Sequence to fold (407 residues):
Amino acid sequence: MEYQVERRFKNPIISGIVATIIALLIACIGWPIWGLIAKAFISNLASVGLAQVDAKAASQYIKDFTEGTFFWMSINSWVWFTLIFGNYGKYAKTKKQPIAGLRYTILAFLAGALGMIVLIGFIGIWWKPFNLATLFMPKTAEEVLLATEGWAAGNFYAVPVLICQIPIVSIFGKWPFAGKVSAPWDGFGAMMTTTAIAIVVWLAMVIPSFLKFQLGAGEAATITPMGSWPSVLAFCQIFIFLFLFPAIGGEQYPYKLFTEKQPWKGLIGIIIAWAGALGIRALLRIVLAPLDLLNGQPVDLVITSLVLSIITTALLWHHQFFDYPGEDLVKSSASRSLIRLAIVVVLGTIMGLIWMKTYKLLPFGANNMGLGYATLGLIAGQFVFMMPFLYLNTFFDKWPLIKQIKK
Fold:
C-alpha cells in the first residue's frame, strides 16, 4: 500500500522544537527502562561472580555492561543501517509508520548485539578480557574485574565506528563502491572495508587506553595514546565534527573548493579534519582551562563534552530542523553553510554549557531516580538524547510529526 506523507508542522523551527521535546521525553522515559532491563539481565546471568565483589565493583560491572548494550545495539547499529546501508530493507514488509520503524529498530538492535558477539567473541578466544564467558558469566571476583575492563574497552569500539565508518559516507561518498555495484552490495563493500580499518584503530587507540599490559619486570608494555583517554576523546569529537558538518549542513564546504573527484575529495577532507582537530583542541585547551567548567576535571573532558554538544546540535538541526535556512530563504550555498555553522556552534555551545551544569539532574545523565539503574554520565549520556531523534528521522521518517495518507 502506498502512502502520501504530509508534515504536521509546516514551519521547520516549530517542527524541530516539537521533535526535540519528543526526543527528550523518550530519553527521560526510555533510559530508565533500558537500564533496569540491562541490570536485571546481567545481575541474574553474572550472579555468581557479583556475589563475590563489593557493591562498588558490582555497580561498575553493571554500568559497563549497560553502556555496552546501548553502544553496540543502538549507536553502532544505526551507523551501519542508516549511513552505510542507506536503510536498505526498511520497507520490506510495510511502509506504514510506526510499524516499519519499529521493525527496523528491532533488526538494528539484533544486528548490534550480533556484531558485538561476533567481533568481541572472536577476539575473546585468545584475549581473556573479551572472552564471552568471562564478560557475561564471571565466576570469581577476579573475573568480574577482568570482565569490567573488557566491557569498557569493547564498548568504545563505538569510537572507531564513528571516526572510521562515517567518513566513507560523509566525505568519500562510499567510494570506490558507489556506482560500481547496486545496493546492498555497495554498503557491504563499505562495511567490510571500514570494519577492517575500525578494528585496527580500536586495537591501536582504544585497547591501550583501557587495558594496562606489563612486561615481566613490571615495565609498562604500552604507551597511552595521546597521553590520556580524555585527550583521545577530545580529538575524536573535533575530528568527527569537522568531517561530519560539511555533509549534513555545510553543503560539502570546504572540500568541494578543492575537488569533487574521489578519492581526492575524501582524502583532503580527512587531512583537513585531522589537522583541524589537533589545532582546535590545542586552542580550546588554552581558552577553556582557566574557566574550570567541571570543577577540577581534565580540560580535555570539558572539550569532549562541549564539542559533543555541538555535534548533537548539528545532527538535530539537520535531521529535525530541516537544515534551516533552506534555499528558499538563502540562495547562496556558501552563505547557507556559514549561517548553519554559526547556528549549530552558538546553540551547541549554549547547550553544552547547560548540559555540564544539569546532566546530574537528568535520568539519562547521572540521576538514577533512586531506582538503581546505571547512568552514563557527562559524555555517553548525550548519546541517549541523540539516538531518539536520529531514529525518529531515519527509521521512523519523522513520525509522529508526519501524517501518512493512503493514496
Observations:
- The chain has one domain: 3-406.
